[in-house]
C-alpha cells in the first residue's frame, strides 16, 4: 500500500512539474510573440523589384504599409514602379547594390527622408548558382556570401540605430531550406544561406531586449519564375532542366503569394523562424533526427545529377530546351510574368 502511494505521489509530482514547465514555456512564448499591424509602417524590401520580394511588396501595400523596394536593374525597377503605383498607397523604388555598404547607407537615408523611419526590413535580395562544386570558383562563393550574408548585415546595421531608439522594429531575413540542408549542386547558395540563418538567430537573441523581433524564413522551392534568372554551370541545359521543372511542380514548390502571406503573418506574430512548405519542414526534420540517412539520400541524389564541371556561366533563359518550354514548367513561366522576372538584363 505504501509503495503504491509512493508511485502515485511520484506521478503526481512529475505531472505537476511537467505542467508547470509547459505553462512557463507557453508564458514566455506569449511574452516574446506580439501581434502587430503594418498599417502606416515603413517597409524596406531588398531585391524587391521581382520574384518573392515583389510579391511581398504588393502584399505589404495592401496591408496599408509604405513600401520601398530596391534592386540593381533600373529597367526592372521601372516596371515594378508602374505596378506598385497602380495599387495606390505610398511606395518608392531605389537603385542600390546592397553588397556596397556606402550605397546601403545612402539608400536607407533616402527611404527614411521620404517615407519615414524604417519599421520593417525585409532582407530578401538573393542569387542562385547551380552546378557541381568543381565548376564553382572562389568568386562564386564570394558572390553568394556577399549577397546572402554581408548585404543583410549592412542593411540591418543601417536601420538598427533608429529601431533601437524607438524600441521597436521587425527584421525578416529570407534564408532557405538550403540554409538547413546543403543541397547538391547548390553549395555556394547553401553555405551562404546557412550563414544567414546563424546571423539571423544571433540577432534575434540580442535584439529582443530592444523590442526588435527578428524572423528567419526558410522556404522550400517557391514558384516565383526566378529560375530563368539563376546562374547555371557545368552542363547548363541539364542543370536548368532539373531545377526549373522542380521549381514548377505543385507538391515540390509553393505558390509565391501563399508563401508571402505566411511570411507576413509570421512577422506579424514575431515568430523566431518559419519553415514554409511541407518539403522544407520534412527536410529540416529529417536532417535533425537522421543526419546520416539524410546525407546518404543527398549523396544518392547527387549521383543522378549532371556531372560536367565546366566553369562557364549561363543564365536560365540562355539554357532553354524543349523540356523546359513544355507543360512541366508552365506554372513557373506564368509566375515569371506576374512577378516581373521576364526581361531582366543579362550580366
TrEMBL record:
Q: Where are the transmembrane segments?
A: 12-32
- InterPro entries named among the record's database cross-references: KR_dom (IPR057326), NAD(P)-bd_dom_sf (IPR036291), Sc_DH/Rdtase_CS (IPR020904), SDR_fam (IPR002347)
Task: Name the keywords, alphabetized.
Answer: Membrane, Oxidoreductase, Transmembrane, Transmembrane helix
Q: List the GO molecular function terms.
A: oxidoreductase activity
| Gene3D superfamilies, sorted | NAD(P)-binding Rossmann-like Domain
Q: Which family does it belong to?
A: Belongs to the short-chain dehydrogenases/reductases (SDR) family.
What is this protein's record name? Answer: Short-chain dehydrogenase
> Which species does this protein come from?
Stigmatella aurantiaca
Amino acid at each position: 500500500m505504501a509503495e503504491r502511494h509512493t508511485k502515485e505521489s511520484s506521478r503526481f509530482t512529475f505531472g505537476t512539474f511537467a505542467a508547470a514547465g509547459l505553462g512557463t514555456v507557453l508564458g514566455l512564448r506569449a511574452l516574446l510573440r506580439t501581434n502587430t499591424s503594418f498599417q502606416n509602417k515603413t517597409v524596406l524590401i531588398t531585391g524587391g523589384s521581382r520574384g518573392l520580394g515583389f510579391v511581398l511588396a504588393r502584399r505589404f501595400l495592401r496591408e496599408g504599409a509604405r513600401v520601398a523596394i530596391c534592386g540593381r536593374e533600373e529597367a526592372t525597377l521601372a516596371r515594378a514602379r508602374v505596378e506598385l503605383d497602380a495599387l495606390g498607397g505610398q511606395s518608392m523604388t531605389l537603385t542600390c547594390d546592397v553588397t556596397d555598404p556606402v550605397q546601403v547607407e545612402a539608400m536607407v537615408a533616402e527611404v527614411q527622408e521620404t517615407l519615414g523611419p524604417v519599421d520593417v526590413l525585409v532582407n530578401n535580395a538573393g542569387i542562385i548558382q547551380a552546378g557541381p562544386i568543381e565548376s564553382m570558383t572562389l568568386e562564386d562563393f564570394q558572390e553568394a556570401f556577399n549577397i546572402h550574408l554581408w548585404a543583410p548585415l549592412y542593411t540591418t546595421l543601417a536601420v538598427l540605430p533608429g529601431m533601437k531608439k524607438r524600441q521597436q522594429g521587425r527584421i525578416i531575413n529570407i534564408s532557405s531550406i538550403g540554409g538547413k540542408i546543403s543541397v547538391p549542386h547548390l553549395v555556394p547558395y547553401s553555405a551562404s544561406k546557412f550563414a544567414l540563418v546563424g546571423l539571423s538567430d544571433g540577432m534575434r537573441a540580442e535584439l529582443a531586449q530592444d523590442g526588435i523581433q527578428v524572423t528567419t524564413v526558410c522556404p522550400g522551392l517557391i514558384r516565383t519564375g526566378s529560375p530563368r534568372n539563376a546562374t547555371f554551370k557545368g552542363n547548363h541545359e541539364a542543370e536548368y532542366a532539373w531545377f526549373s521543372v522542380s521549381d514548377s511542380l505543385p507538391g515540390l514548390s509553393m505558390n509565391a503569394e501563399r508563401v508571402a502571406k505566411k511570411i507576413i503573418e509570421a512577422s506579424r506574430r514575431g515568430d523566431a523562424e518559419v519553415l514554409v512548405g511541407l518539403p522544407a519542414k520534412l527536410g529540416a526534420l529529417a536532417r535533425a533526427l537522421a543526419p546520416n540517412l539524410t546525407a546518404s539520400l543527398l549523396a544518392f541524389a547527387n549521383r543522378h545529377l549532371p556531372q560536367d564541371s565546366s566553369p562557364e556561366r549561363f543564365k536560365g533563359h540562355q539554357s532553354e530546351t524543349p523540356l523546359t518550354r513544355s507543360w512541366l514548367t508552365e506554372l513557373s513561366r506564368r509566375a515569371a510574368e506576374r512577378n516581373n522576372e521576364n526581361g531582366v538584363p543579362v550580366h
